[in-house]
Amino acid sequence: MKTLLPVPEIAIGAGRIDQLGADIAGLPGAPERVLLVIDRFLAKAGVAERIRAALAAGRRTLSLWDDLAGEPSGAQIDAAADLARRDRVQAVVGIGGGSALDVAKLVAAIAPGAARVEHYAFCAHPLPARPLPAVCVPTTAGTGSETTHTAVFTNAAGRKAWAWGPELAAAKAILDSSLTVSLPATLTAATGIDALVHAVESCTNANRFEANDLLAHAAIRLVARHLPTAVREPQNLAAREGMLVASCYAGIAINNAGTAIAHNIAHALGSLGKVHHGRAAGLGLRASLPWSLDASAPAFAAVADALGGPRDATALPGLIERLIGAVGLKTSLADELPGLTPERLALEMALPENEAMRRSSARPSTDGDLLHLARAVLTAA
Question: pLDDT band at residue 121, thresholds of 50, 70 and 90?
Fold first, then answer.
């Protein structure tokens, strides 16, 4: 069965965040008490006050949680959920990168209950049936978290964990390019490549289907058109908006079809060291493409076409290589993971929490294949 899942209402436009008060008023029950989950850097840059001003006209009260720098831990999510319960908030707004949006979605989902977030990891238990409405405002163009039913965090053992389900769906997404212009070029590149990998994997893996491919191919075209410009010209709002839409489309696409082996590699790398997820996904795609092509050649050929190349699967590795080079993505992991062996990485890739991504790949993989791919990632120059 192939299913196009519901998506939140999506508002697009530079400066659109200033209408947030009306957005909150339009949610079920017209919430009056709102929790803002925001990256610490953005809070210090004045975005939290901008949100407070946008809500003030409706006499709404704002609780602020900004204890976030980097990927969120389960303890941080529980602290934010405790604040939501204590202040009896009725809606959650998340502003920032994928981590802030994931925290916001998880808090909105678990605050109506009493359990800690790890209770829900890997779908061990159902999420509460009546989540708070969440509004997601991405300030990076990569994860597409504003449109997915998934959220990732680091558990008490220091490992990546995730929860998923319709209860994690946002009520509304706001794509405001003016909030992305301060993102450094390196992060613009890494998050943009993450969006690209989402789109590529969702339309080439074992779960792909034609209706969903439309979104993935549109995302790929947008990345090819706008990512190099967004990296070179950070104030270019058209390029920034194009990338936000690309990330949004790619998020919808993975929500319907999932990812594949490149994300298996990325999650394994993220559990073993501090490698930005988007960059890790790009390196995983770069390393796995030659191994993957024959299993889904027509689908990969369509990706090559969407990137502006010939409709030929064998052209795709070169197209990806050129795009990675054009945006300056660093391809060697030697500095971040100097002692990591291919054998250790392959073991991480084979863990149960990474199995779904491995199983979704169009080409079935043996443990020997994982070792081959691990070598390809770690020996890249």
Answer: very high
Place of tokens 């996904």: 281
Residue type, 333: L
Structural tokens at position 88: 């009896």
Residue span(s) of the chain under CATH 3.40.50.1970 come to 9-179
The Cβ-side half-sphere exposure at 132, using a 13 Å CA radius, reads 31
Please tell me whether residue 363 adopts helix, strand or coil conformation: coil
What's the rounded Cα separation, in Å, for the pair 250 and 223? 10
Locus of tokens 């989902």? 109
Q: Which residues pair with 151 in a beta bridge?
A: 163
What is d(CA 216, CA 250) in angstroms, rounded to the nearest whole number?
A: 6
Percent of the chain topping pLDDT 90: 86
- The confidence score (pLDDT) of residue 380 equals 84
CATH number of 185-378: 1.20.1090.10
The more confident residue out of 277 and 56 is: 277
> How many CB atoms are closer than 10 A to CB 226?
22
CB atoms within 10 A of CB 190: 25
Q: How far apart are the C-alpha atoms of 104 and 110, rounded to whole Å?
A: 10
What DSSP state is assigned to residue 97? S
Structure tokens at 164: 């998923």
CATH topology of domain 9-179: Rossmann fold (3.40.50)
